Amino acid sequence: MRARSGSAGAPPAAPAKQTILVLGGIGFLGPHVVDAALARGHTVTLLNRGKTHPGLYPNVETLRGDRDGHLEALANRKWDAVVDPSGYVPRLVKASAELLAPRIKHYVFISTISVYAKQDVRNPDESLPVATIADPSDEDSKAHYGALKALCEQAASAALPGRVANLRPGLIIGPGDPTGRFSHWPTRLAQGGEVLAPGDGSTPVQYIDGRDLGAWIVKLIEDGTVGTMNALGPEHRVTMKQVLDACNAALGGKAQLTWVDADFLDKQGARGWTELPMWLDNKADYAGFGTIQNTRAVKAGLVFRPIADTAVDTLAWLSTLPEDQRAKARSSGIKPDKEAKVLAAWRART
Ligand SMILES: NC(=O)c1ccc[n+]([C@@H]2O[C@H](COP(=O)([O-])OP(=O)(O)OC[C@H]3O[C@@H](n4cnc5c(N)ncnc54)[C@H](OP(=O)(O)O)[C@@H]3O)[C@@H](O)[C@H]2O)c1
């Protein structure tokens, strides 16, 4: 990893205004990048098909195109940097990276910690081996998400040697999250009463607020930072108990958490990560869960807001959505009747 910097002792110069192309830009993470870039005075261009949240940025130049074979709108254009949050297939990342290589300085590819082949190593850094795929032409990005993302990283780096930042976020949370995963916790805690909490509370957990990630991506562009970096926080290790206690306190302290043993949850069919988001039973194949090192990213300026702020802001964002979208954005997380059933069984255990 390298970063351009000013001369020692001199006051930091205002960052040069950048022209930034975002391939996509109007899903979940993209808007956080766009908002951060605009707030810093940079000029943003989007390329997308116009299907997702059309009209979200009426004042931002938007080029119509499809990464799969229709990049004509990028012809004869130049940008300082490209952010690629919508690459899932190496063939398409290769196409955009090669096309843009002569006309940009810096390519920021949004990868994932799912690139890692295994999750059983504690405290891994970016040198942990990545997943591979038997047939690299297999483009099923659901079945081979991590392995294909790893190949996308390699495709970008091959097209722009020494000019790529490959960022590997963990669970991205906060306002705008369409997956409804983290949203379960602020929603449920704000309702109050007895809340099913997974494990014994000591499980380390990691996440990144999309707004912190977006701001950091813009900083990387301003600093010209390249290299492969895990992108998740917080800076210091936290446990599931610390996270839920902080969120509960910030949301009025109305919930009483009942911590239910991981094996008991397993027997009850209550699933970590999906029904009990952000958490997994960190043993055996998942012994490294929640312990991925982020030292490189922190050195490169990644900072984290308190989880309590994310919880409050997520709830506030949910309240702005029309009912159907709100229901979808809350659709993850254990259903109330199942939660009550598991809690009753836990109380009744011998
Ligand atoms: N969520 C998590 O917890 C998590 C964790 C780790 C890593 N990640 C990574 O974070 C990124 C999240 O990205 P996001 O979806 O939020 O990004 P985004 O840029 O906000 O949304 C995706 C954009 O891509 C556009 N798009 C999709 N297919 C396209 C195509 N064929 N041609 C042109 N444009 C296309 C969509 O618009 P149109 O539909 O209008 O084209 C949309 O604007 C992903 O790379 C994901 O792997 C996520």
Supply the key terms.
350 residues, alpha/beta, binds NADP nicotinamide-adenine-dinucleotide phosphate
Description:
The chain is about 35% helix and about 20% strand. The chain is an alpha/beta fold. The strands form 3 sheets. It has a 7-stranded parallel β-sheet, sandwiched between helices. A 3-stranded mixed β-sheet has the order 7-9-11. It is globular, with a radius of gyration of 21 Å. The termini are far apart. The structure holds NADP nicotinamide-adenine-dinucleotide phosphate (NAP). NADP nicotinamide-adenine-dinucleotide phosphate binds near residues 26, 67 and 171.
Helix content: 25-40%
Structural class: alpha/beta
User: How many angstroms separate the termini?
Assistant: 55 Å
How many beta-strand runs?
A: 12
Extract low-pLDDT stretches. 1-7
Q: What are the distinct ligands in this entry?
A: NADP nicotinamide-adenine-dinucleotide phosphate
The coarse silhouette is: globular
- What topology, given as strand order, has the largest sheet? 3-2-1-4-5-6-10
Please report which band the strand proportion falls in: under 5%, 5-15%, 15-25%, 25-35%, 35-45% or over 45%: 15-25%
Radius of gyration: 21 Å
SS summary, helix count: 11
Main sheet properties: 7 strands, parallel
How do the helices and strands follow one another from N- to C-terminus? EHEEEHEHEEHEEHEEHEHHHHH
Oligomer: single chain
Round the mean pLDDT to the nearest integer and report it.
95
